[in-house]
Design a protein that fits this description.
The structure holds two protein chains of two kinds. Chain A is of the alpha+beta class. Chain A is built from eight helices and seven strands. In chain A, strand 1 and strand 2 form a beta hairpin. Classes of the chains: A alpha+beta, B alpha/beta. Bound molecules: flavin-adenine dinucleotide, iron/sulfur cluster and FE2/S2 (inorganic) cluster.
C-alpha cells in the first residue's frame, strides 16, 4: 500500500536567517518504509540540504535517533504506516543542534567516560577464558544491548534541568561493568556514580524506559545500582 | 583557508574491529590517532550478528587444522594457505584475549565461551557441521566492538570521530599522511604520520540490495587505486543467502546454525539436493546460487522471487536467548514472528573478499613482486590477505579483522623507530582543496542520488550471483557512461557545516571507480570459482585461473597482473559438501 505522508521537519541552518524554521514535504511511501526512507527521499529529490545522521538502517548503530511525533525514536526503526499522516520531526531535545536533525552528542558521550566504561581486572588472566556462568552473564544481558543512541538521556527531565546529571545511558554503562563478575573496580566505579550528579538523582520517571529502542528497562537497572551502592556503604547524595 | 595540522606516529583510518584492534597494539609504542567518519561504535562491525570463529572446542571436539581445511575449501582453493593457517591457529589466543578484554560472550553451562554451528565449518575434514562460532547472542559484532573501543579509551587512543578521510598521501613509494574533513564544521585537517593503517571496511553500498551500512562505500580503496596501487580479487563479492526480502537486512547464518532450514514454494528442503552432507549449512556461495536457481526454475514461494527461512521448529527458548535480535528485526520490519511464520528471504550483497593486497603482516603491496609501500598497512574487510579467497566462510571475517588488525599493529610498531615522519606537501593539499571546491560549485543537470541509484541497480542486475560476458560488457560501458555523467553533477548544499550532500558526492565518485574495477575483474576471469559464477564458464579452471587477480589503473585503462596462490597443505579438489 502506497500513501502520501507530510513530513514537518524542524530545520536548523546555522548560516541562514532565521536559523530555525519548519519545512513541510509531501512524500509517497509504501507500508514497509521507515521514517529514515522518507528523509532520504526528501534529501534525494526535494532538498539536498536536509541533514541527518544515518548508517546501519536497521536499528543497530544508534546514529539516527530523533524526536518523531513527540517521542525520541530511531528513524530507521519507525515504520511510517504506524504513524499518522502528518509526521513531525525534530532533533533530539536538550543537546546543542549542529544542523537540522544532527545534534552535538559530545556531552552525552562525556557522561559515559565518567563511569570508567571498560572492564577493569588487574589480576593476571588465566590461560583460557575467565569462567562466567550463563546466569551471571544474563545479569548484564540487557545492559550490553545499548547502542548509545541518546534517546534515553535526552528524554530525561532531570537531565533537561541539570546537564551535570550523568543520565540513564551512562548509568546503564556503569551497571554493565558493576554487574559483570569479571570486573574488579566496584569501589572506584561506585564512587563515580554516587556523587551528587549520579544515581540518587534518578526519580524513576521512566521516560528513558519508554523511549529506549532496545527496550531496556533502564530504571530497573538504576534501582539495582542504588541497592548495590547502599549495600557497599555509599549513602545518598554526598559521597 | 585555515588548515589544521596534526602529527601522530600512527594514524588509523576506521574504528571498526580491525581499526580498534590495531590501535590497541600501536598505542604500546607511540601516539595513535584513529579517524572515523562515524562515531566509533557506529562502525558497521557493530552489525555483525552470528559469531566469530575459533576452534576452542568448548562444545565438542575441534581443531585449528580442521578450521584451516574448511577455510581453504570454503575459499574454493583461492585463499592463501599460509595466511589461512596463521588465522586459524591465532584464532584461539585472539578470542581468549578478547574475552579477557571484556567481551560479554554467551556461555556454556560450565561457564566457557559458547559456540554454535556456521556454514562450511566442519568436523574432521568435512564429515559433519561443528560448533565453532563463538557468539554473544546474535549481537557478536556489537559485543566485540564495544569491548575493543572501551580498551582503546582505557589506553589513551585519540579518536577523531566524524572525520572523513579524503586523501591518503603516498609519495616516493612511502606513506606521508592523510587529509580529512571534520564533518561537523567542514574544516580541513592534515595528519602527518610515520605509519598509516587502513581499516575502512567493506563497500556493499555499490549494490542495490545489501546488508551493509550507508557508510560502506569503499572510498579508501579507490584512493589507493587512483594512485596506481593494485586491488586484488575484486571480482569476488559475497552474496549472503538470507537477507530479508525487499530490505536486504541480514538474518544471520547462525539461524541455520541453530536449526533453521530453507524451503521453496513446494515446501521442499531444497538444500538437500545441492549439499547432501551439510545441507543448509553449505558455504554461502552455494546456498545463494541454490536459492536463485530455485526461484529461476519457478520454485520460489508462490512462484515469486523469494524463498522461506523456516525457524518454526526451533525451540522458542533458543530463539529468545540466542537469536533475539533477528527475531526483533522480523517483527519490526516484516510484521512476522519467526516462531510462528517462516521468514521470506533472498540473497543480499554482503561481503567483499577482494581489497587492498597485503602480506601476512598487513603491509600494503605495490606489485606482484611483493614490493610494498613503506609505512602503509591495511587490515579487515578493506584488505585482501587473502584468507577468504573466492568465498568467505561465515564467522571468519570478524576473526580476520582481529587477527590481522593485531598483526598489522604489531608489524607497524616494530618499524616505528626506524621510520621517518611523513610530509604532506602544500601542492597536494592545494589540489585536494581545489577538487573539493570544484565539486561543491559544479553546475550541471545530474544529481548524486540518480547516478548512485543507477549504479546500484546496474551492479545488482549484471554483477551479482550469476554473471555472463555479455552483461558484464554492458555493465562496464554503463559504468563508463555514469562516470561521464558524474562530471555533470550539481549539489545543493553549499555550506560548511555537516555537509553530507558534498560527502556523498565524494563517495559516489569513488564508488564508480570501484564498480568499474569489480566489473572489469569479473569480466576477465573466465571461470567459475566461489562467489564468482560465470554462466558462460560454469566450471572452475585450475589450470588457467588458480591465481589472484591484481587490477591496476594505467593510461590504457584498467590492466591486470596475476599472483600465484600459496598452496601448502591442501591440494585443490572438487568442492562437494
Ligand atoms: C549485517 C552483517 C552481519 C555480519 N555478521 C558477521 C558475523 O556474524 N561474523 C563475521 O565473521 N562477520 C560478519 N560480518 C562481516 C563483518 O562484520 C565485517 O566484515 C567486519 O566487521 C568489517 O570490519 P572492519 O573493521 O574491517 O570495518 P568496519 O567495521 O566496517 O569499519 C570501517 C570503519 O572505517 C571508517 N571509514 C570508512 N571510510 C572512511 C573514510 N573515508 N574516512 C574515515 N573513516 C572511514 C568507518 O567510519 C568505520 O569506522 C557481518 C557483516 C554484516 C554487514
Ligand atoms: S539505553 Fe536505550 S535509549 Fe539509552 S542510549 Fe542505550 S539504546 Fe539508546
Ligand atoms: S541508522 Fe543505525 S540505528 Fe538508525
Amino acid at each position: 500500500m502506497i500513501k502520501y505522508y507530510t513530513f514537518k521537519i524542524k530545520r536548523y541552518l546555522p548560516n541562514e536567517t532565521p536559523k530555525t524554521r519548519w519545512d513541510e514535504f509531501r512524500v509517497k511511501l509504501n507500508n514497509m518504509e521507515r521514517v529514515l526512507d522518507g528523509l532520504i527521499k526528501i534529501k534525494e529529490t526535494m532538498d539536498g540540504t536536509l541533514t541527518f545522521r544515518k548508517s546501519c538502517a536497521h536499528g543497530v548503530c544508534g546514529s539516527c535517533a530523533m524526536k518523531i511525533n513527540g517521542k525520541n525514536r530511531l528513524a530507521c526503526q519507525t515504520l511510517v504506516k504506524d504513524l499518522p499522516e502528518i509526521i513531525e520531526i525534530e532533533p533530539l531535545p536538550s543537546l546543542p543542534v549542529i544542523k537540522d536533525l544532527v545534534v552535538d552528542m559530545t556531552l552525552f558521550f562525556q557522561k559515559n567516560d565518567k563511569v570508567l566504561p571498560y572492564l577493569i581486572n588487574e589480576e593476571p588472566p588465566p590461560q583460557r577464558e575467565r569462567i562466567q556462568s550463563p546466569q551471571d552473564q544474563h545479569k548484564i544481558l540487557e545492559s550490553i544491548t545499548c547502542i548509545m543512541c541518546g534517546s534515553c538521556t535526552t528524554s530525561c527531565p532531570v537531565f533537561w534541568s541539570d546537564k551535570e546529571y550523568l543520565g540513564p545511558s551512562a548509568l546503564l554503562k556503569a551497571y554493565r561493568f558493576l554487574f559483570d563478575t569479571r570486573d574488579k573496580a566496584t569501589e572506584q566505579r561506585l564512587k563515580a556514580i554516587t556523587g551528587q550528579d549520579g544515581i540518587w538523582r534518578c526519580h524513576s520517571i521512566f521516560n528513558c524506559v519508554e523511549v529506549c529502542p532496545k527496550e531496556i528497562d533502564i530504571t530497573k537497572h538504576i534501582l539495582k545500582l542504588k541497592r548495590l551502592a547502599i549495600k557497599k556503604g555509599f549513602k545518598g547524595g554526598q559521597e | 583557508m585555515e588548515i589544521n595540522k596534526h602529527y601522530f606516529d600512527t594514524i588509523i583510518i576506521g574504528s571498526g574491529l580491525a581499526g580498534c584492534r590495531a590501535a590497541i597494539e600501536c598505542i604500546e609504542n607511540g601516539t595513535v590517532g584513529v579517524l572515523s567518519k562515524l562515531y566509533p561504535t557506529r562502525s558497521h562491525s557493530t552489525a555483525a550478528q552470528g559469531g566469530i570463529g575459533a576452534a576452542l572446542g568448548n562444545e565438542e571436539e575441534d581443531s585449528p587444522e580442521w578450521h584451516t581445511y574448511d577455510t581453504v575449501k570454503g575459499s574454493d582453493f583461492l585463499g592463501d594457505q599460509d595466511a589461512i593457517e596463521i588465522m586459524c591457529y591465532d584464532a584461539i589466543p585472539t578470542i581468549i584475549e578478547l574475552e579477557h578484554m571484556g567481551v560479554p560472550f554467551s556461555r556454556t553451562v560450565e561457564g566457557k565461551i559458547a559456540q554454535r554451528r556456521f556454514g562450511g565449518h566442519t568436523r574432521d575434514f568435512g564429515k559433519a557441521p561443528v560448533r565453532r562460532a563463538c557468539y554473544s547472542a546474535d549481537r557478536t559484532g556489537h559485543a566485540v566492538l564495544f569491548a575493543l573501543y572501551e580498551q582503546c579509551q582505557l589506553r589513551g587512543v585519540r579518536f577523531f570521530q566524524e572525520f572523513q578521510v579524503i586523501d591518503i598521501v603516498i609519495e616516493n613509494q612511502a606513506i606521508q599522511g592523510v587529509i580529512a574533513i571534520n564533518i561537523k564544521d567542514g574544516s580541513i585537517h592534515v595528519f602527518e604520520a610515520k605509519i598509516v593503517i587502513i581499516a575502512s571496511g567493506g563497500y556493499g553500498k555499490i549494490f542495490k540490495v545489501t546488508s551493509n551500512a550507508y557508510a560502506s562505500t569503499g572510498e579508501c580503496l579507490s584512493m589507493l587505486f587512483r594512485q596506481g596501487l593494485p586491488l586484488e580479487d575484486m571480482e569476488f563479492f559475497q552474496f549472503h543467502p538470507t537477507g530479508l526480502y525487499g530490505l536486504g537486512i541480514l538474518i544471520t547464518e547462525g539461524a541455520r546454525g541453530e536449526g533453521g532450514i530453507l524451503i521453496n514454494g513446494k515446501g521442499e528442503r531444497f538444500m538437500e539436493r545441492y549439499a547432501p552432507t551439510i545441507k543448509d549449512l553449505a558455504p554461502r556461495d552455494m546456498v545463494s546460487r541454490a536459492i536463485l536457481s530455485e526461484i529461476r526454475e519457478g520454485r520460489g514461494i508462490d512462484g515469486q522471487d523469494y524463498v522461506y527461512l523456516d525457524l518454526r521448529h526451533v525451540d522458542k527458548k533458543i530463539l529468545h536467548e540466542r537469536l533475539p535480535e533477528i527475531t526483533t528485526f522480523c517483527k519490526i520490519y516484516m510484521g512476522i514472528d519467526p516462531s510462528e511464520a517462516p521468514i521470506p528471504v533472498v540473497p543480499t550483497a554482503h561481503y567483499a573478499m577482494g581489497g587492498i593486497p597485503t602480506d601476512i603482516d598487513g603491509r600494503v603491496l605495490r606489485d606482484v613482486d611483493g614490493s610494498f609501500v613503506q609505512g602503509l598497512f591495511a587490515a579487515g574487510e578493506c584488505a585482501c590477505v587473502s584468507v577468504h579467497g573466492a568465498n568467505r566462510l561465515g564467522c571468519n571475517s570478524l576473526l580476520d579483522t582481529v587477527v590481522f588488525g593485531r598483526r598489522a599493529g604489531k608489524a607497524a610498531s616494530s618499524i616505528l623507530k626506524s621510520s621517518t615522519k611523513g610530509k604532506v606537501k602544500k601542492e597536494r593539499l592545494a589540489l585536494i582543496i581545489e577538487c573539493l571546491e570544484m565539486l561543491k560549485n559544479n553546475k550541471g543537470k545530474e544529481t548524486v542520488a540518480s547516478i548512485r541509484k543507477e549504479l546500484q541497480q546496474a551492479m545488482m542486475d549484471k554483477c551479482s550471483v550469476f554473471r555472463t560476458e555479455e552483461e558484464l560488457k554492458l555493465l562496464v560501458d554503463e559504468i563508463k557512461t555514469l562516470k561521464e555523467r558524474y562530471k555533470e553533477i550539481e549539489i545543493t548544499d553549499k555550506s560548511k557545516t555537516f555537509n553530507t550532500d558534498l560527502l556523498e558526492a565524494i563517495e559516489l565518485g569513488h564508488m564508480l571507480t570501484l564498480a568499474e574495477v569489480i566489473a572489469s575483474s569479473a569480466l576477465q576471469r573466465t571461470e567459475s570459482r566461489g562467489a564468482h559464477y560465470r554462466e558462460d564458464y560454469p566450471k572452475r579452471d585450475d589450470e588457467n585461473w588458480m591465481k589472484h587477480t591484481l587490477a591496476f589503473q594505467t593510461e590504457k585503462g584498467i590492466t591486470f597482473k596475476y599472483k600465484p596462490v600459496k598452496i601448502t597443505r591442501f591440494k585443490p579438489e572438487e568442492r562437494k559438501y
